[in-house]
Amino acid sequence: MKITFYGHFCFMVEHGGVRLILDPFLSGNPASGLKPDQVQADAVILTHGHDDHFGDTLEIASRCGCPVIAIHELAHFCASKGAAVHGMNLGGTYRTEGYSVKLTPARHSSSVSDNGQLLYAGEPAGALITMGGKTFYHSGDTALFGDLKLIGDLHRIDAAALPIGDNYTMGPEEALLAAQWVRPGVVIPAHYNTFPGIRQDRFAFASACEEAGIRCAPLLPGESIEV
Q: Would you place residue 38 in the very low, low, confident or very high pLDDT band (cuts 50, 70, 90)?
């Protein structure tokens, strides 16, 4: 499994010719290094509806002819805009050729912007992506909460992306504890430095992880790891 970071909380996960993009906030984030019209994907996976995660979902899904996989209410919104969708709910797993997606709880909020209004977009979620026998955990925006340990107990997680930005999500100290609970093969810090209010030092977080015996990959946009 190849995992590529495209800034903020956007990741591309691929194996065996299948490519999945998660939370494609690209055109609104010049640090991503990737334009929406450069994306080739077999599905768009959303953790929640906020603009800095929903991003270029509809454009990518339309151009690639691929479905949007999301919590039921958010999938319904995408369908109302003409997208092919697969709606899910927390705890459920969608299995299809080449990959599976399981939605996990997250402690956050979720709304989608539509003509200047904020609409309820269902529960926020994390996503467990399994391809080629490997599992990537994208926690989505979340506070620290006890069930993160349960997620780690129930699944063998080869890589996990966790937010460290604080203010809107957990900060680096709590993310370190989350990493200890989830026990991934490698942790990738995300959701930091995009806006002034979420400035963090990725190397300080990586150092704290290493001291705790956790491998950390503080990727820059466009960088990849393989697990």
A: very high
Q: Report d(CA 29, CA 81) in Å as an integer.
A: 23
Domain count, the chain: 1
- Domain carrying residue 214: 2-226
The 3-class secondary structure across 2-59, one letter per residue, is EEEECCCCCEEEEECCEEEEECCCCCCCHHHCCCHHHCCCCEEECCCCCHHHHCCHHH
Distance between CA atoms of residues 2 and 19, nearest Å: 9
Tokens of 131: 């391809």
Task: Take residue 32 and report the two structure tokens written for it.
Answer: 């991503």
Cα–Cα distances in angstroms (integers) from residue 116 to residues 46, 113, 119, 152, in the given order: 21, 6, 10, 39
Would you say the pTM of this structure is higher than 0.70? Answer: yes
CATH code of the domain covering residue 12: 3.60.15.10
